[in-house]
Structures are given as C-alpha cells and as structure tokens.
UniProtKB/TrEMBL annotation:
Keywords: Acyltransferase, Transferase
EC annotation from Swiss-Prot or TrEMBL: 2.3.1.201
Gene3D superfamilies: Hexapeptide repeat proteins
Protein name, entry field: UDP-2-acetamido-3-amino-2, 3-dideoxy-D-glucuronate N-acetyltransferase
Family matches, as InterPro entries: Hexapep, Trans_hexapeptide_repeat, Trimer_LpxA-like_sf
GO molecular function annotation: acyltransferase activity
Source superkingdom: Bacteria
Length: 205
C-alpha cells in the first residue's frame, strides 16, 4: 500500500510514516514526528517535531499539532483546529530580548483513543482529551476532558455523554446509558462513563 506524499508537502526525512499514510498538499511533517499506519494529514496541516500519532488518525485541512502532542489510535482533528504547546506564551523575555527555544519549555496536548476535536477548536496545553470524547467545533479546552464526554463553548464545558460512534447517548436511568446507533451500553460511576463490559471487567475478581 505504501506511503503517499504530495509533491507540495514538506516531510522531513527524519520523520517516520507508517504504511498507508497519506500527506496532502502543502502539509508539513517535522523531524522526529512518528505517524502510525493509515493516517491522513490534510492540506496545509502541520505536525511538529517529535509529535506522535497512532494508527488511523485524521488531521483535517490546516490543523496545527504542535510538539510534544501525543495522539493515540483513531483520533480526529478537524479543520483549522489547534493543539498548543506554550503555557505562558511571550515573544520576548522581560528584558525585551527575543525568546529562543532555550527560554521556554514546550508542553503537549494528549488526545486519547478515538477522540475527536472539531473544526477551529483550540486545546490549551497541557490538557488531555479522554477516550472517545468529542470537543465541539470552536470550543476552547482549558482542562482535561473525561472519556466519552461531549464538551463545547469557551471555555469548554461538559454537555452530555457520547458513545464510540460519536452519537449522544440515551439515558436509561440508574446511571445506565445506551447508544442509539450501535446499541452499546454504558455505565456512569463517580462522574465518569465506561462501556458496560469494561466496567464489568474491572469489577471481576
């Protein structure tokens, strides 16, 4: 299947791209970045030095993923979304001198398995977006997002639970939820959500 790189893309030879990965027009993949199998890097997207993508990730057009971000398998980053890496950004030091790489420490965003970040959303490092969670378009994420949560707004706040299919879950009562698309069932405990089979496995002696 091979790797597909557009003639206009800029992929550093020190980056590692997995089988079946595609990098489209005007995208840039920097040195030391590691992309798994089956990834798609859209037009004009940016992947910073040392950024790690799992398998089957999708970065849509003009998404900006700054180092040292970590994206697990199956992550979606929408058009023009940004994963930042500077907690206290300044162009200059207090004495007015231009900042260099030695004057600040990059901190990364972590996107867990299956999570999605909508178009033009911004994740302010260091935050973690949980497994199968969804960040709505235009949201600004300033704190960690639980597994299976849908968050929206500025700053982003929890709205409801979503399943692995990305569809809002139906409340079945008693802390139990069901996905109308897949039929999967979930259980809510201690403010979090888990697939019922995951929860059962945790409870098995």
């Amino acid at each position: 299947m091979g790797v597909r790189i557009s003639d206009t893309a800029d992929v550093d030879p020190r980056a590692r791209l997995g089988e079946g990965t595609s990098v489209w027009h005007l995208a840039q993949v920097r040195e030391g970045a590691v992309l798994g199998t089956g990834c798609v890097v859209g037009r004009g997207a940016y992947v910073g030095p040392g950024v790690s993508l799992g398998n089957n990730c999708k970065l849509q057009n003009y998404a900006l993923v700054y180092e040292p971000a970590v994206l697990e398998d199956g992550v979606f980053v929408g058009p023009a979304a940004v994963l930042t890496n500077d907690e206290f950004p300044r162009a200059v030091n207090p004495d007015g001198s231009l900042k260099t790489g030695a004057d600040w420490e990059a901190v990364g965003v972590t996107l867990r398995q299956g999570s999605s970040v909508g178009a033009r959303a911004v994740c302010i490092a260091p935050v973690t977006v949980g497994r199968w969670a969804t960040v709505a378009a235009g949201a600004v994420v300033t704190r960690d997002v639980p597994d299976f949560a849908l968050v929206a707004g500025v700053p982003a706040r929890w709205l409801r639970w979503v399943g692995r299919a990305g569809v809002p879950l139906e409340d079945r009562g008693g802390g139990h939820w069901r996905c109308p698309s897949s039929g999967e069932t979930y259980v809510e405990t201690d403010g979090g959500l888990a697939l019922e089979r995951d929860h059962d496995a945790e409870e098995t002696p």
